[in-house]
Every structure is written in C-alpha cells, then in structure tokens.
Specification:
The chain is an alpha+beta fold. It is built from eleven helices and nine strands.
C-alpha cells in the first residue's frame, strides 16, 4: 500500500508525546477548516484577514511557548509542530504567529517591565491586539548594528525618529517593539501605534508572502514616556535573541511547506496519466519523490532534535542557524522539484506548490539570510568571524 501520511514511513509520530500530537492535530484541523478553503484567494488578492488573530488566539497559539499572562506555556516542540502545520497552509500564516509570539510578545515577556507585560501580553495572547517588531531598516538588514533610528531624551520622555522596513503586521499592529540607537546604546521601546508621529504603509507589488501584511514604519518625533523603554534589554543582544526565537519556528515551519508540496505532487502523480499510465509509475518521477521525501524527513528530524535541545535549555544560536539554513534551503528545492511533477498545472494557484516556493523565497531571506547563517556556522566551526 502506498504511504499517504508523510510521517508514516519513518514513524515520526512515535517521537511525539500525547500532548504534542494533540496540539499538532488540533492545528492541522483548524487549518483545514478555516484556512485551506480560502488561502489561494487570499494570496491572489493580497489579503491577510485580521479576524484570524482572534481565532488563533482562541486556540492558544499566540505566544503559546511563553509562560504566564494568558499564554499557553507549551513546550518548544509543540510550538514548532504548530508552526509546521500553519506553514503547510501558507508561510504568511506562520509568519503572523511567529511575529506575534516570538518577536512582539517574546520581546515584552523577556525584556519588559511588569507594567508593560500586564498591559500588552494578555491582549496579544487572545489576538485582541496585534504586535510587530521594528528592527530592520531600509539600509540595514543583515547588519542591524548600523541602524539609524534614534531615541533621544527630552526631560522624562523619549523622542524617536527613524524608519523601519519589511515589518510583518506593521500596518495592522496595535503595538510595535521598536529598536533604536540612544546615547547609551541600542534599546527597545514599546510603541502604541496610535502615538502621534507613528505611521505605517504597506509594501505593494509583492510576489511572495502576499497573504501577509508587510509594511514600512515611520517614526517622526514620536514622543514616549520614559516607561516605554524595555528595561532589561541593552545592546544588540536583546533583538538578536528575539530573532533566534523566531528562527526556531521557521526550522519547523519550512518543513510544513515542503510537506504540503510533497503531498500535492504525490496525489497529482497518482492521478495524472501519460503514455497510458500514471506518471507516479515512471522511474524519474519516483526518483524525484524519493529524494524530496528523504530531505523532508531529514529536516523534520533536525527540527525535532533542536526542539528537544531547546526544551532542555541547551539550544545554541549556531544550532538554530544550522536548522534554518538547511530546512529553508531544502524546502525551496522540494517545492521546485514538486512543481516539475505537476508540469504546467504547477504554475497556477489551483495547486499550492508555486505559492509555497514564492513564499519560501522570502523565508530564505528574513530572520537572517542563508549567507549570514553560513557565516554563523562557519564561525562556530573555525572560531573566526568573517563578518568584518
């Protein structure tokens, strides 16, 4: 009998406990009922429905790996599995959850004051408020140390000026964590987006992540009280740790996109006939499927290994770099190979494969490009930094 469940051949589910399997199944069922029937249209029309935030919050998926303040407090593997199922629908959906939980909420939970946590985390966890994370700038992506956004003291207040770019959720956010240079170093600030001087404008004409809101943030004399600064974050270590949280979700998420491509290609190959028989019976098609299946399983095993290390408190940044570098790179290749199995049918939104491939091109770039992660791994291997 052919394998219909992508986890069955190597019995990957045997590595999950009951709670992890239940969370995985719950998210998969939610995606099947609420996202899959609409996602092709959302992508084509560049729609990111805000009402999904409340539904995701109702399931406990927003900030699910954080403790307290209305967060579910799951383990890292459960969070990763949720990301996998979300990205199996669309990378934009996983991006929303990653930015909300691992960037916006994590930055407040890890570095914020008790007042900031009480004010924002419960609302963000329920999806009643949406958060974004302002680090990247138009001229400073891979080198955030060069940021030009500045925060200066004015009595007891802070005044922020600058521009942030490629910000997921930017124009729909209620609160932004904005990183800025001060006379004392780089600090983070909790910025309600209705503050005078704050504005956000969407990036248009996207060919990737079309079902996700991507924006530029503009801060023009944004006045904040002294209490808006995140008190426990000084220097780049703060935002970089937040990025590492988001990268962890990508390690799992990319494999969700790869799985959806594989399942689609396998089903298509079994039903598509050429030369009098299904193309699934041809050697070249089976070779493509076998190689893609192999890389998918290797990626899931790597993600699970990193998840167990994270739950044990042993996960290092360079290990996350290995996971993101490998899994996103392999997911794109799987998507491209699966598109060839679908032939001309693979270029339409009737099938999800090219949509996944387009989305993964963005995932390859954000939260550290493949080149940056290669250098991070290279530094871990040699002890020498190639950045400067």
């Amino acid at each position: 009998m052919p394998v219909k469940d992508m986890a069955a051949l190597l019995d990957l589910d045997a590595q999950l406990d009951d709670d992890e399997a239940l969370i995985r199944t719950t998210v998969r069922d939610f995606v099947a009922a609420h996202v899959r029937p609409h996602i092709a249209t959302w992508f084509e029309d560049a729609i990111s429905p805000r009402e999904l935030a409340g539904e995701l919050g109702g399931l406990g998926l927003l900030g699910m790996h954080l403790q307290g303040y209305g967060c579910a407090g799951t383990n890292a593997v459960s969070y990763g599995l949720a990301c996998l199922e979300l990205e199996a629908a669309d990378s934009g959906l996983r991006s929303f959850v990653s930015v909300q939980g691992s960037l916006s909420m994590f930055s407040i939970r890890r570095y914020g004051s008790e007042e900031q946590k009480q004010q924002w985390l419960p609302r963000l966890a329920r999806g009643e408020a949406i958060g974004c994370f302002g680090l990247t700038e138009p001229d400073h992506g891979s080198d955030p140390a060069g940021m030009r956004t500045r925060a200066r003291r004015d009595g007891e207040d802070w005044i922020l000026d600058g521009t942030k770019m490629w910000i997921t959720n930017g124009s729909v956010a209620d609160v932004a964590t904005v990183w800025a240079r001060t006379d004392e170093g780089i600090h983070g600030f909790v910025v309600p987006t209705d503050t005078p001087g704050f504005s956000a404008h969407d990036v248009g004409h996207k060919l990737s992540l079309r079902a996700s809101t991507t924006s530029a943030l503009y801060l023009d004399g944004v006045r904040l009280p002294g209490s808006a600064m995140l008190p426990d974050a000084v220097g780049l270590a703060g935002p970089l740790r937040c990025l590492n949280e988001a990268r962890f979700g990508i390690v799992f998420g990319a494999m969700g996109a790869a799985r959806d491509c594989l399942e689609t290609a396998l089903e298509y190959a079994e039903s598509r006939e050429q030369f009098g028989r299904p193309i699934a019976g041809f050697q070249l098609t089976q070779a493509k499927l076998a190689d893609a299946y192999l890389e998918y399983h290797k990626g899931v095993l790597l993600a699970l290994s990193l998840g167990r290390r994270k739950d044990a408190g042993q996960l290092r940044p360079e290990q996350v770099s290995i996971g993101k570098l490998n899994n996103v790179r392999e997911a794109i290749e799987i998507a491209r190979v699966c598109r060839t199995i679908l032939g001309g049918s693979g270029i339409t939104t009737e099938y999800p494969v090219l949509r996944h491939a387009n989305n993964l091109e963005s995932v390859l770039t954000y939260e550290g490009t493949s080149e940056v992660h290669q250098l991070a791994v290279g530094q871990a291997l040699t002890g020498l930094s190639a950045y400067r």
